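Structure (tokenized):
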């Protein structure tokens, strides 16, 4: 028989916006015995280094910086008296809801929980995942690392900058580096469309006359000790460089903004089913995974474009975990949510039958669709639709199913995008 360091009702892995939101919801729904484990020595996750504004518009109706947004949840957590352990690394999560963790203060801990919420966030895709040829010189950073250097540590990574990829962090760093006196030569994107929010393209590139090269990529990295330049080239429909389109850019810094990867090593270790499309767990509309009692939310589930949506999702996951503890979330038959044409990675992937709550389906379009309609069909009939002038992969789409529509489900649900005729 194993000896547990302690037993809790709900254990939350991660103290970023997702973990904080889930913890607040658990507590506000009547569960007092909960614990949040965070590997950093501070709460708030990545928001601490996001000193630009634009956070909180949906949730609070005002513009906040990242630290300001995080502080509101940190203050609420403290107000509710929720127990937090920082500088604590979670080593494993078991199917039996036993978590092993280690810290310098508490040593090795074996914690038994009745429910677990996974909220570990995501990490940046590194250079090694790209297969870009060239030397292994200094001056190549992920956009998030550069953001940490500039905003938290007061270091400038370089003076002449090229950004590969047009994710939101890369776009924001194009503006930040410019404001700090660097020359940003270009933002280079492999796809024929940007992977960032349109507002960031306008405010971070166009407002500062920074060129965006779509359907381009870096094909060579030059420099022995320090980066001295890169070669970019236009790519064809198969994303292969087109001979004769090469262009040399003299630079000392290359920032990579080439996608985010959910941190799901703990989820895999627990035996949670993962989606090959989102790289996150497969969940039902209560945000419960394939293992009863394990819930998940935030960027570890699927990469969001706005933290407001992370918080909204996390409150739902926390509420569901509290209901599970109280026995108010019984097992139920589910119907599958399928990706139709133009849709990639809809979350949740399953909807519980026999309930009467509205449900938000979230996904990213597989391409750019102009003057199009998003439809939700089930049993041969259309149950919801949403029209937009443009659907683009850089912006997550949410389509809501009303209570009566959910209650009437008996067959699989398909989400599609159709061009208007």
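Design, position by position:
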């Amino acid at each position: 028989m194993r000896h547990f360091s302690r037993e809790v009702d709900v254990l939350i892995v991660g103290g970023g916006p997702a973990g904080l939101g889930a913890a607040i919801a658990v507590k506000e729904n009547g569960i007092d015995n909960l614990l949040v484990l965070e590997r950093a020595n501070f709460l708030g996750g990545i928001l601490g280094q996001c000193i630009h504004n634009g956070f909180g518009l949906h949730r609070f109706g005002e513009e906040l910086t990242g630290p300001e947004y995080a502080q509101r949840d940190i203050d609420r957590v403290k107000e509710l008296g929720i127990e937090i352990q920082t500088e604590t690394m979670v080593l494993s999560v078991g199917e039996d809801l036993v978590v092993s963790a280690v810290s310098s203060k508490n040593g090795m801990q074996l914690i038994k929980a009745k429910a677990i919420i996974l909220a570990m966030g995501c990490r940046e895709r590194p250079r090694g995942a790209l297969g870009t040829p060239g030397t292994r010189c200094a001056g190549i950073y992920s956009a998030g690392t550069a953001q940490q250097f500039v905003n938290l540590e007061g270091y400038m990574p370089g003076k002449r900058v090229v950004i590969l990829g047009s994710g939101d962090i890369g776009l924001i760093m194009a503006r930040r580096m410019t404001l700090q006196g660097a020359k940003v030569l270009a933002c280079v994107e492999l796809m024929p469309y940007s992977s960032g929010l349109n507002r960031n393209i306008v405010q971070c590139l166009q407002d500062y006359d920074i060129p965006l090269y779509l359907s381009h990529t870096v094909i060579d990295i030059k420099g022995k000790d320090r980066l001295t330049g890169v070669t970019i080239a236009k790519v064809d429909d198969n994303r292969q460089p087109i001979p004769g389109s090469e262009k040399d850019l003299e630079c000392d810094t290359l920032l990579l903004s080439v996608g985010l990867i959910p941190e799901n090593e703990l989820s895999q270790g627990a035996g949670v089913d993962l989606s090959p499309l989102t790289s996150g767990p497969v969940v039902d509309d209560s945000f419960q995974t394939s293992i009863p009692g394990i819930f998940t939310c935030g960027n570890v589930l699927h990469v969001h474009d706005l933290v407001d949506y992370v918080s909204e999702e996390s409150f739902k996951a926390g509420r569901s975990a509290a209901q599970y503890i109280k026995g108010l979330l019984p097992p139920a038959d589910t119907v599958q949510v399928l990706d139709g044409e133009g849709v990639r990675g809809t979350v949740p992937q399953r909807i519980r039958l026999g309930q009467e709550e509205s449900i938000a389906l979230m996904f990213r379009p597989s391409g750019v669709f102009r003057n199009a309609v998003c439809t939700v069909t089930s049993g041969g009939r259309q149950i919801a639709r949403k029209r937009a002038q443009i659907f683009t992969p850089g912006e997550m789409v949410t389509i809501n199913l009303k209570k009566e529509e959910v209650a009437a489900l008996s067959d699989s649900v398909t989400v599609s995008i159709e061009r208007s005729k």
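Reviewer-requested clarification: The mean pLDDT is 95. The first helix runs from residue 17 to 28.
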